[in-house]
Specification:
The structure is a homodimer.
Chain A: E1 4-5, H1 8-21, H2 26-33, H3 37-44, H4 52-62, E2 64-70, H5 77-80
The first copy, chain A, binds a DNA duplex (30 and 30 nucleotides) through helix 3.
DNA sequence: TCGCATGTTACGCTGTGGCGCAAAATTTAG
DNA sequence: CTAAATTTTGCGCCACAGCGTAACATGCGA
């Protein structure tokens, strides 16, 4: 499951896939973040206007964190050792 | 240079470090994104209210992309093969 | 087929991001 | 030490996210 993203759409898609993989509903995320279900929906559908705080809250609820990497950069030897 | 982030502060810090590593000024990023220097400043200083679109624009200008990973998750064998 | 769960959309409201413009504050170079 | 470059902050303005609430659509199991 690749969770690389350059766009809001890709971020929303990644969050939705992770949520489903956890077997959770948007309502579950809502309860864990105090964000409205509508807000989760909007984010998962790729709204680039979403605030960073909202994205981070959902990611925390899903147990995810960001890693910023060189565009298109795959694994490099230095990353391993 | 580790660019892992769970908070807006860490994201801002990572963006600033990457920008400096490129030898660029906030003004350079501003020119490449059509965002105000003040907006870049705010983001680098960890404003969680920043819009996703703004973060993504700056990341694109820096040649970065997001990778969402399990919290605290380091490299796993499956990531390599 | 029907009904409940899940997800999407809408309305009015408040708070605030990002804009232009500009001035202060801080950092860096000479 | 001082001037220039870089960054931060402020003001008025407009646009819109996220809120409560609710209706509507979609999906899925009994």
């Amino acid at each position: 499951m690749d969770l690389t993203a350059r766009t809001a759409e890709q971020i929303g898609e990644a969050l939705r896939r992770t949520r489903k993989a956890r077997g959770w509903t948007q309502s579950d995320i809502s309860a864990r973040t105090n964000l409205r279900v509508a807000t989760i929906s909007s984010l998962e559908n790729g709204d680039a206007g979403t605030k960073l705080a909202t994205v981070l809250a959902v990611m925390a609820a899903l147990g995810l964190e960001f890693r910023m990497v060189e565009r298109g950069g795959s694994l490099e030897i230095e990353d391993i050792f």
